[in-house]
Amino acid sequence: MSWWERAAARVVLALLWLVHWLPLSVQAGLGRGVGALLYGLARRRRRIAERNLELCFPAWPASRRAAVLRDHFGWLGRSLVERGLLWWGSGERLRRLIHVEGDVDFAEKHDGPVMWLVPHFMGLDVAGMASQLFQQRRVASIYQRQSNAVFDVRMRAGRLRFGNAEIFSRHEKALPLVRAIKRGAVFLNLPDMDFGAKDAAFVPFFGVPAATLLAPARMAASMGLAVQPVIAEMLPGGEGYRVRFLPAWRDFPGADDEVAATRRINAFIEGEIERLPAQYLWVHRRFKTRPEGQAKLY
Fold it and tell me: What residues pair up with 143 in beta bridges, in sequence order?
């Protein structure tokens, strides 16, 4: 990593630190502006998001997909600008801004290991903060190491700053995570990214075969994990965020095999995307890995 990449990262982080002091309504406006710039400048990511929407919603008129695409970049810009608030904002301020709903203390009441299923909506990091601020049980999660070391250090520090969480790199072995779960940590699991065909199956996602990790179903079965879906939503302007702790799937995977159970996860995520289509992470190449013999989709 070159010196100028480090310097640029420090400048960006300094700006995020300054912006985090502003009212959320002002941050939201700045974020929407950043999103508009990204829509025009980040053409590769825009094409990926456009292609994902075409694949997942072929019956929609093109005008609706275009409107969702523009709106998506507005939420994406907000998620980037408001990261400073999550990394440096006081716990008191975050508790005022994050509105939690549902069975928030299920993990505390449940006598056994718990997995939270947290799909990649724009408020994903808000869900991580809510899991630390609104319940007492320790949280363990996996994260994708950032290519920029300065950002990586800041992201780790921001996610761990309240002292009741631990995170493990996706490039490490699973044993430390398993040990943390056995010690009583709740596993905050992100089940919906394409990490290749290894330990995955091609499970339909909006009717398109998508390489989907089988680990959630395997771990729930082998470790007796109760599975609770958690959805984070960004609210307009300065209204804050909503995090919904949904009813736990106590029968997961039940009688289903691991592929059928994984399809159940994807079907659940599809339903939540239909409720909040512009806030899902469409800039990720969800269909990057293809079944043998099938053409690339990007």
Answer: 169
Q: Give the span between the Cα atoms of 221 and 258, in whole angstroms.
A: 9
Contacts of 191 (CB under 8 A, 6+ apart): 117, 119, 212, 213, 216, 265, 269
SS3 94: helix
Q: E-assigned strands of the chain? A: 98-102, 114-117, 139-143, 165-169, 186-189, 200-205, 208-213, 226-234, 241-245
**Counts for the chain of helices (H) and strands (E), in that order:** 12, 9
Q: 0.85 exceeded by the pTM? A: yes
pLDDT digits (tens, 9 = 90+) for 58-73: 999 999 999 999 999 9
Rounded Cα distance between 298 and 288, Å, is 7
The answer to whether 159 touches 165, Cβ cutoff 8 Å, is: yes
Q: Are strands 186-189 and 114-117 parallel, antiparallel or unpaired?
A: parallel
Are 252 and 261 a contacting pair, CB within 8 Å?
yes
